[in-house]
Amino acid sequence: xxxxxxxxxxxxxxxxxxxxxxxAPMTRxxxxxxxxxxxDLMVEYYTQRASAxxxxxxxxxxxxxxxxxxxxxxIYTSEQVAGWQKVTEAIHQHGGKIFVQLWxxxxxxxxxxxxxxxxxxxxxxNPHSQVYTPTGFKETVAPAEMTVAQIxxxxxxxxxxxxxxxxxxxxxxxxxxxNGYLFHQFFNGTSNHRxxxxxxxxxxxxRFFFEVLDAIKAAGxxxxxxxxxxxxxxxxxxxxxxxxxxxPTFDYIIKRLNDYxxxxxxxxxxxxxxxxxxxxxxxxxKRYRPLYTGTLIINGGFDEEKGNKVLADGDADLVAYGxxxxxxxxxxxxxxxxxxxxxxxxxxxxxxxxxxxxxYPAATK
Length: 365
Prior knowledge:
alpha/beta, TIM Barrel, two-stranded antiparallel sheet, 14 strands, globular
């Protein structure tokens, strides 16, 4: 029997991985301490999953202003860097590779999480969603439209996050420019009504994102250690709505990313059924594989069979698994041995402590 494509090694001029299975970034809310510092429980969690070809951490805040959920780690203090060092050292000792996802949620936050300050976004438009605060779910508010000075500060925050990622021993970093968060809020015309150099044309709406990449490069970070995540057909979630320019904007962004020599581009298939939406692209991997010349990771509802097929069809190089990795720490071995997959307990996805986090047993030898 031929070896599964998922289990074959992958090598590019930027990445060398033992298999093509990627652990997708997933918020798990276990950094339940005042300093948002990665803890020993998180070390155990990631180490249990070190057999993945590549692990991408949960979204990690680049500043206090970036926050939008409780108990999420950061990477802007020396204590946080030291906490992450324990994670990366453990992963490397187990032969794994790990990238950190750098995150700013933008308007998907609440003053209760920001010391009473308004969230920041492209425009002062309420996403009309909910945010989990220290006192439970609350309705979002209209954010403050970012000033140019605040945009420049946020660029600097991402540069510091990238530099700290290397200090912490990460193999690289992923810019979270997806899923309705800050950069996505700039990309989309329904969330960005600006009339300055960061609004209007698709080039202007993508300017902030590319300024971050350019600044990281100018700071001396090897761009072969940088990835980016995008979700072109997100619609009806996190306050995002597709318009006629959404897909053309992502076409522009993804083609331009070819010039950056990134470690990879990480794309998500639609989170919802968009087959009847003429503004959406229902087949993300098939659309963007011909447009992007570097390493392509695809994510979104894949199982073993679908993951092998998308690789065999040549539509992606790597496949990222999210929810399956919560309850199957030995996912790669389960695929190899065709062991049935365990279901995760949704009630413990975001609750503190080991229950539903590090207590899922391995089912393989």
